[in-house]
Amino acid sequence: MKVAIIEERCVGHGMCLLACPELFELSDEDGHAFLRSENVPPALQEAVLQAQRGCPEQAIVTSA
Amino acid sequence: MDQAQDLKKCPIDFDHESEDHVASWPAEFREMRDTCPVAWTERHGGFWVATRYKDIVAMAQDDATFSSFKTFDPHSGDVSGGITIPATPIPRGLPVESDRPDWDVFRKFLNRRFAPKAAEARRQNIRRYADSLLNRVIETGEMDLVNDFTGPVPAMTTMELMGLPLEEWRQFADPLHEMVFTPKNSPDFPKVIADVQWIFQRCIETFHQRRSQPPQDDLLSYFAHEQIDGRPITEEEMLSFCNNIITGGVDTTTALTTHALVYLNEHPEDYRRLKDDPSLLPVAREEFVRYFTPIHGLARNVTRDVEVNNARMEKGDRVYLAWAAANRDPEIFDAPEEVDIARFPNRHIAFGAGMHRCIGSFMARVMFEEMMQAVFARIPDYRVDPERAHRYTSVGTINGWIDMPTVFTPGPRVETGLVL
Fold first, then answer.
1. Which of B153, B185, B241, B304 to pair with B121, CA 20 to 30 A apart?
2. Residue B413, CB half-sphere, CA atoms under 13 Å: how many?
């Protein structure tokens, strides 16, 4: 599974960090999210899907 | 009469500022979401009210169509636009009451000061304020939760951030609370406004002092020394930044923490879970933010004719985005009218949505956590008495408690290096 953030949509709710701190980080500049890696290991797939479902801006996309 | 005018007729007579709304809002919003999700009310000069989650997020994200711009003429008192209904006759808040491209400059200027790392750096001091405030009352076994604790902690945190002298915490904390709950037609209101103006006067004085001092690590020094677009910041812009930070960051966090502590007193099983395992606090915190939504809603100006969920809005209309209604929308949340401290994921928009989303949310989260941890550690058997407490008479600005009598087993003071 791969994951990406639509940067124009992210405004820094930070819910992805709560869901999956292993892959999501928040910027020290503006609190917007960025990824440590776009590759999602199997063990983190459920957490990344939670991050996607929990994003109020629908700024997270996943693909198989 | 054309069709658009007809569509502005809605059976719902909605006034978010009314006393009735304080108790009836969950039912009122439920009915509006079901029957009239974008409603028109004639109150306050007439405005639209949006109550469904998806409509509200879409409008908040479309910042070109739904503007936040405000104008205020201090000489005539004329005011238009902005994020409150009715528009308040005070200078606009920045960045929140600006549009692109100005917004990009103002928001970027502040972002770093409120980013997660900046908020985390305050954690120890926030806990120190919480412990110092508890020291004032811990040996007596009683306090007023709001006036002695959940009010002053965010006030002092904000003062430190701004660079204002901490020993004036009481003169700072009280008016910022009173301003929100004192009805505008009350005989007390002029004094409250004068007290709030004193705070802004202190900001002006400190701002000018900082200009002749070397740069320091506080916001008023930052405003005094840094530049926007290659020029110094004007006094008017500085006051608009202060307005946004002070009115956005203090009483909102007070309301959230008070509501949460009242809820936990009434739900001892949830209290035990959080106290025994504070790693559950961040998820629970977001649920409290969702459920209590301290800022119930904010307004936008419609900049072009546009249709939203069958409502035909016209250029020049005003629309109220009811975050509190969105946060209980059953299309998004299971059992939305219940608190589930383990609810996750939690797509709430209590901090707003789109580009204007709350800049202080990371600060608020740290303040909430440290206040809760201080309660767990020092007054774990606290008992609140909501029967003797008072709710705000309007939830139009913030949904909070005026006061909250509280008792606990007396305990020892702790060393904080700060005597209040």
1. B241
2. 13
